[in-house]
Specification:
By secondary structure, the chain is of the alpha/beta class. About 40% of the residues lie in helices and about 15% in strands. The termini are far apart. Bound molecules: nicotinamide-adenine-dinucleotide (NAD).
């Protein structure tokens, strides 16, 4: 791979795609392809919508002709490397939804005018590269080109600064040896550690298992929070005590549930493919239920502490992002908490200046409530102000000492 001469197209300019795009653009010429015109216009004006990618970086790369965003398939026709980084959510029936991947395959198949290395970074079940992406691109390819296919599941944790795309080991595998060699060359120009596995299916499964491990352990600690409360002991003190063991224990902390694009979603991809193959996925299904039920448990505790009714009470939900210090609200536990509070007759508003606007509502001031429920505690939000915003505060994060909580 010859440095800047290589042309790279990244399909999808969201959390994963834009982050990869700016890293790759330090070495290569990059087209950030996205079908959202508003995002493309913003990016070409040097405005980033993703934490961790600055407007200054974008402007510098645009000025050096290393980066351009586009909605036009013709811009990717002569690419040497194509990276797929589009969403892989669940359908309303909570089944894997590969529509975005299918549409990316259509763009690639119809647009590419020369053989390329096609790498999937989107999370999906084992077999997606071999049985879905390759046949779909071939189906839409009018020129019937022979591409190389590889997988390199993205492991980035948005907002994290100690482990990034650069220094987190990158798994990869190709459908052919040539694809694996080219993939290694591509990523080694901007990633420190590469780890090849024997088949794409292993890489795809490893990514799903990593997030399933977290989902199951979060469910376990969420159940343990309920057990601790019923026994009248502090879950946090108990976890700290257990964590003094230097081996065989890993500390997870309880929460209002799991959010984001990965933990609530990826395990269901694994469970679905397992069940399709006749294998059990009992743990995964149960963990999902426990995490989803946390919101109901928390609202139940708030009701119990407030005389058995929330009717007419002004309840402020503090923090609606799915985790601290980022603006991402996908699958946030705040949504279910708000729903349960409203079902109890509460008058609910929310405060989150990192998110700003969500579902047609704006962040409310951190004051004047009867009850506050802290779902996510951003570093920028002052604990004293949270404690002062309502006469009763229930904290689900373990960061607001002096309040009620898990
Ligand atoms: N966000 C994370 O922390 C993270 C971490 C690891 C893996 N992943 C995985 O990476 C993939 C992408 O996730 P994300 O968080 O970057 O999503 P995102 O929603 O932030 O961005 C996806 C982008 O793709 C665009 N898009 C959708 N369909 C398209 C199409 N057919 N052609 C072109 N653009 C299209 C959207 O407009 C959007 O800008 C998913 O499979 C996700 O599970 C995400």
């Amino acid at each position: 791979m010859e440095g800047i001469k290589l042309k790279v197209a990244i399909i999808g300019q969201g959390y994963v795609g834009l982050t990869i795009a700016v890293s790759a653009a330090e070495k290569f010429t990059v087209v950030g392809f996205d079908n959202n015109e508003k995002i493309v216009t913003q990016l070409n004006n040097g405005i980033s919508h993703i934490e961790g990618v600055s407007g200054e970086t974008l402007k510098r790369l645009i000025t050096k002709n290393r980066y351009i965003a586009s909605t036009d398939g013709a811009e990717i026709a002569d690419s040497d490397v194509i990276v797929i980084a589009v969403p892989t959510p669940l359908t309303p029936e909570r089944k894997p939804d590969l529509r975005y991947i299918e549409s990316a395959c259509k763009t690639i198949g119809k647009s590419l005018e020369k053989p390329a290395l096609i790498i999937n970074e989107s999370t999906s079940y084992p077999g997606t590269l071999r049985n879905f992406i390759k046949p779909n691109i071939e189906k839409f390819s009018t020129l019937k080109l022979q591409h190389q296919y590889a997988i390199s599941p993205e492991r980035v944790d948005p907002g994290r600064t100690d482990f990034t795309q650069k220094n987190t080991a990158r798994l990869y595998s190709g459908l052919t040896t040539e694809a694996a060699i080219q993939t290694r060359e591509f990523y080694s120009s901007f990633c420190d550690v590469l780890f090849e596995v024997s088949t794409p299916e292993v890489a795809e499964a490893a990514k799903l298992f990593e997030n399933t491990f977290r989902q199951v352990n979060i469910a376990l600690v969420n159940e343990f929070a309920q057990i601790s409360h019923s026994l009248g002991i502090s879950v946090y003190e108990t976890l700290d005590a257990a964590n003094t063991k230097p081996y065989g224990f890993m500390k997870f902390i309880p929460s209002a549930g799991v959010g984001g694009h990965c933990i609530p979603v990826d395990p269901t991809y694994l469970a679905t493919i397992a069940e399709e193959h006749g294998a059990p996925a009992k743990f995964i299904r149960l963990a999902n239920d426990v995490n989803l039920e946390m919101s109901e448990y928390i609202v139940g505790r708030v009701v119990e502490d407030n005389g058995g009714s929330l009717r007419g009470k002004r309840v402020l939900v503090v923090g609606v992002a799915y985790k601290a210090n980022i603006a991402d609200v996908r699958e946030t536990a705040a949504e279910l908490i708000i729903e349960h509070l409203r079902n109890q007759g509460a008058v609910v508003s929310w405060h989150d200046e990192v998110v700003g606007n969500w579902k047609g509502e704006s962040s409310s001031p951190l004051q004047g409530a009867d009850i506050a429920v802290v779902v996510t505690k951003h570093d920028s939000v002052d604990v004293e102000k949270i404690l002062a915003c309502a006469s009763y505060v229930f904290d689900t994060t373990g960061k607001v000492s002096g309040s009620h909580g898990l």
